[in-house]
Write a structure and sequence with these properties.
Cyt_c_oxase-like_su1_dom, two-stranded antiparallel sheet, mainly alpha, 470 residues, 2 strands, metal ion binding, EC 7.1.1.9, 2% strand, 15 helices
């Protein structure tokens, strides 16, 4: 049983969670604006600050660093305390991490629309902000590992293994990919060039997905899924195999982004082989989480938080099928650089990460604020179906657009002349781009329902919260 004298620090966790909710709304609203701009180019307003190229990195940074990193920081600090039956390593350090990270996000919000960017995918922020990120990340690592070291139990729960991996790997690859020579306060140039720059960039780019959006979220889910399902992890041994499989193979897979490029063939082949191997640990972990939920089938039938988690697992299976599929050369030839890629990314980002985050918000926020249940079960039901309709419409539209687009780019006459012009390919995918906008808008509408429901939940009268075992 838990030590009754243990005092947990939850106030800073609340701040991280609220920041995550806020950035999920901001980041995804910008995403809907971008989708609208692709169908109605007039919405760029001939403005250098509001056009697609300036807003797109704001969208990706807002979702990845705002929504995801905030919830991972908050959840990891909470879970490290609960599973270790100890308080935080240092409360002041926790607040330094929180406010330092919000400063990073504020600087991104100001600098990216102004055009201050390195032009590197998921690493657009310029060098002074990068230095601040490194400082905050080191403080976060000290705080997390210090809390783990304080634990009053010998065992380190598997969720903390995944958190540790995402903290260490992101630190390593972020620093290396962002090595640059400053030319001014707002401009720098990468120390890498050409094929070397591409290899290092996609070592970072793919593993930012692999460890921020995958390992970190898996760690969070390995704690919350057993909680919400009221059952233990289906197979703890499989969760450990899942961990080592992910850590062992994911870091090598980034060069599948560079097939048919000037990068050496053997380097491309490493990415292909590792991507295909990743099917095994990914689906093994998904099976483990799904079986954990299915151990309580009766609750799963009516509990929409469990349904959100279950849906996230299904989209995780889908996204981790699409990634290795893209690594196969014949399919890469058809799909790469088309809308299919955007569909793949968002089946993972909205379906896996988004629904995991939503389920966590619905379960975690009432617990943090000492509430026994959500204000409205009807609103969470509406949100569930809006989210599913949004992701399905979004992804299916872009799969169709991408395969059609890829075929039209490759189609040739007998003399080798291209059959379709670029404009014809654009006209083909236009209605599918509208459906992309519509699907994204449905997803964001669901988020507004969630925010309203959670606001009403935390502002209703408190009840006496029973002490729960970790």
């Amino acid at each position: 049983m838990e030590n009754e004298t243990t005092v947990y620090s939850t106030k800073v966790v609340k701040y991280f969670v609220v920041a995550s909710v806020a950035w999920s709304i901001i980041g995804m609203i910008v995403g809907v604006i971008l989708a609208a701009q692709l169908y109605w180019p007039v919405l760029n307003f001939d403005s250098e600050y509001f056009q697609f190229g300036r807003l797109r990195p704001l969208h990706t940074s807002g979702v990845i660093y705002g929504f995801v990193v905030n919830i991972l920081m908050g959840a990891s600090l909470y879970i490290a305390q609960r599973t270790g039956q100890c308080g935080l390593f240092n409360k002041s350090l926790a607040w330094m991490v929180f406010w330092g990270w919000q400063l990073v996000l504020l600087l991104a919000l100001l600098s990216l629309p102004l055009g201050y960017t390195t032009s590197k995918e998921y690493a657009e922020l310029e060098w002074p902000i990068d230095l601040l990120i490194v400082l905050v990340w080191v403080l976060y690592a000290i705080l997390f590992f210090g809390t783990i070291a304080k634990r009053k139990v010998n065992h380190i729960f598997v969720a903390n293994w995944f958190f540790a991996a995402f903290i260490i790997v992101i630190a390593l690859i972020f620093v290396i990919n962002n090595l640059a020579l400053p030319a001014s306060l707002t401009k720098s140039y990468s120390v890498f060039a050409g094929a070397q720059d591409a290899i290092v960039q996609w070592w970072w780019g793919h593993n930012a997905v692999g460890f921020l959006l995958t390992a970190g979220v898996i760690g969070m889910n390995y704690y919350f899924i057993p909680k919400v399902s009221e059952r233990p992890i289906y197979s703890y041994r499989l969760s450990v195999i899942h961990f080592w499989g992910l850590v062992g193979f994911y870091t090598w897979a980034g060069t599948h982004h560079l097939i048919y490029s000037s990068v050496p063939i053997w380097v491309q082949n490493i990415g292909i082989v590792m991507s295909l191997i990743l099917w095994l640990p990914s689906w093994g972990g998904a099976f483990n989480s799904a079986m954990t939920l299915l151990q309580n089938k009766q609750k799963l039938k009516n509990d929409y938080i469990m349904m959100f988690f279950f849906s996230a697992i299904l989209y995780y299976c889908l996204a981790t099928f699409e990634g290795p599929l893209l690594a196969i050369r014949w399919f890469n030839m058809m799909a790469h650089n088309t809308e299919w890629i955007i569909g793949h990314v968002h089946s993972g980002a909205l379906g896996w990460v988004g629904m995991s985050g939503i389920a966590t918000f619905y379960y975690f926020i009432p617990k943090l604020w000492g509430k026994d249940k959500l204000w409205s079960t009807r609103l969470i039901k509406w949100h569930f179906w809006l989210a599913h309709a949004g992701v399905a419409i979004y992804a299916i539209a872009l799969w169709v657009a991408g395969i059609g687009e890829g075929y039209m780019w490759l189609a040739q006459n007998e003399n080798g002349e291209l059959i379709y012009s670029f404009v014809e390919a654009m006209n083909f995918k236009a209605p599918w781009l509208f459906l992309r906008f519509f699907g994204g808008a449905l997803f964001v509408l669901g988020l507004f329902l969630m925010v309203f429901n959670l606001y009403k939940t935390v502002t209703k009268p408190k009840f006496v919260l029973k002490r729960e075992a970790s």
